[in-house]
Every structure is written in C-alpha cells, then in structure tokens.
Design brief:
- This protein is an alpha+beta fold and 272 residues long.
- 27% of the residues lie in helices and 29% in strands.
- Strands 1-2-3-7-6-5-4 form a 7-stranded mixed sheet, sandwiched between helices.
- α2 links the parallel β1 and β2.
- The radius of gyration is 18 Å and the shape is globular.
- The chain binds biotin.
Length: 272
C-alpha cells in the first residue's frame, strides 16, 4: 500500500504564483502538489490513464517509493530536492519518444548551466552530472491506453539542498546537490519555474521537428563527447567514440572507419 497524502501545495510552492510565472505554457493550471506520494510517476500514470491532459504536472515534497531506471530506489527526502513528473502526449510514432526524453534532459541541463551557473553535463542515457557527480536523474516511461493513446511521463529528480551527509552511504561519493556546489540554499520554486519554461521551449522545438537543434544542444552538454566506449548490444559488441544523439534519441557513436552507428544500449564500457 503506497502512502499518498491529499494534494497539498502549501509547503513547496505557491500555486497562484507558479501559474503566473508559467503563464501560456503547457503546464499553466496543471499542477497538483502533494506532501507525500509513493512515486510521482505512478500518480501521473494513473491520471494519464484517466485522460488527464498534456502538461499535467505532479510534484511531491517527499516520495516514499521514488524510483530510477532498472527500478533502483531514488532517494527523495523532504525539503531537499525537486521530485516531479510531467505528462506529455506528443502524438507521434512511438519510435520518436526516445528523443522526448533527451529533450527534457537538454532543458534541465540548460537551466543548470545558464540560470544556476554550474557546469551540468549529460551522460547517456539520461543522467545529469556536475563535476562528475550525479545531480539529476530523469525517468521517462511510455505507455498506451486505448482511450487516450500513447503518452510519456517524464519524471525528474533534482538534488538541490542536500548536504553531503544526507545521501545514502552508497551514493555519497557519486552524488551532489546544488547546495554543495554553490555553498548556499537554493530556491526550489524558482528553479521549478525555470525548468518548466525550458521544457516548454525545447518541447516546442521537438514538436516543430527541429531535431537537429536538440541534438546540437545535447552534444554541447555531453559529458563524454569524443571519448571511446565499447558498446554491448543484445547480439553484438562494437567500439566507437561518443558523437551525438539522433532524431530518435538514440546514442550516436563514430566508428573507427568514420561512419556513425546508432544504439539504444545503455551497457557502455570506457576503453582507453
Ligand atoms: C534515474 O536516474 O535512474 C532516474 C531517477 C528519476 C527520479 C525521479 S523523481 C520524480 C520521478 N518519480 C520517480 O519515482 N522517479 C522520478
């Protein structure tokens, strides 16, 4: 049984203020804020199945069952981060949905670089690192319902005000927060506004099919651009240098012969 509080926006964000800041975006008037949920992705999925519109935004102060890729636990303590999920319904072939998750990653990285002033880098498939440590994870889940068609839920977890001691032992060396990097407590409300505005901007670019703009941004923020990796796919292995992402959100690697090869594999091993 997942614990879920009643929607309650009082603590984390002033909804009227937020709506004013994001006026005219997909997300205006679409926020539901909770103190505690299991996972904001699960709440968003439930609402999506019931026909919730694109732009639905679920925010929680605390997640008891926050999760990352491969169903790994995602630590989501109260008062320390932004844990939220966005519902998108891009009316596209399923194979384009991979690029939506890169679009969201580029938007968050842009805010961290341009507005916050930290050197945020993208690590395939969907991590954001600063100084080599993870600051943000994005979990994109797609689903189909006969009534409402295909949809995508982008779950974003951004570490903001944790101190080093607040991370679980196994993550202490690998994780960071904006407070650790900037030496100051950061306003989560303002960051949320900046991220929603940036997602709106890049998502419009995606809908206009200006895929090259997204991949160029991805490249400009790529943590391992030009570095060599061995890629393990289900039935093959190949070596290449990280180059970009393609129009389907797959990773592009430059092969020793000069051609580009796309992969969806996340099983990559650095080669010297
Ligand atoms: C990862 O790095 O593996 C992805 C982590 C994604 C965490 C966010 S927090 C909000 C949303 N709800 C979840 O349960 N997960 C995502």
């Amino acid at each position: 049984m997942v614990m879920e509080s009643k929607p309650d926006s009082r603590r984390l964000v002033d909804v009227a203020w937020l709506n004013e800041q994001i006026k005219g975006t997909l997300f205006e008037g679409r926020l539901t804020a909770f103190n505690t949920v299991g996972s904001t992705n699960d709440v968003a999925r439930r609402l999506a199945r019931q026909g919730a519109p694109e732009g639905t935004l679920i925010l929680a102060e605390h997640q008891t069952q926050g999760r990352g890729r491969f169903r790994r636990a995602w630590a989501s303590p109260p008062f320390s981060g932004l844990w939220f999920s966005l519902l998108l319904r891009p009316h596209l072939q399923g194979d384009r949905l991979g690029l939506v998750s890169q679009t969201v990653a580029v938007a968050v990285a842009d805010v961290l670089n341009v507005k916050v002033g930290v050197a945020a880098r993208l690590k395939w498939p969907n991590d954001i690192l600063v100084e080599g440590k993870k600051i943000c994870g994005i979990l994109c889940e797609t689903a189909f319902s006969a009534e409402t068609g295909e949809y995508l839920i982008a779950g974003i977890g951004l570490n903001i005000n944790q101190t080093p001691g607040m991370f679980p032992d196994d993550l202490k060396q690998k994780s960071t927060s904006l407070r650790i990097l900037k030496g100051a407590v950061i306003s989560r409300e303002q960051l949320l506004v900046n991220i929603l505005q940036a997602v709106e901007r890049y998502y419009r670019i995606f809908l206009q099919q200006r895929y090259g703009t997204i991949s160029a941004k991805w490249e400009s923020y790529a943590q391992h651009l030009g570095q060599h990796f061995r890629v393990h796919e289900a039935d093959s292995v190949f070596d290449g240098a990280i180059s970009s992402v393609d129009d389907f959100g797959r990773l592009l690697l430059r092969l020793p012969g000069g051609q580009l090869r796309a992969t969806q594999s996340t099983n990559l091993e650095a080669v010297k």
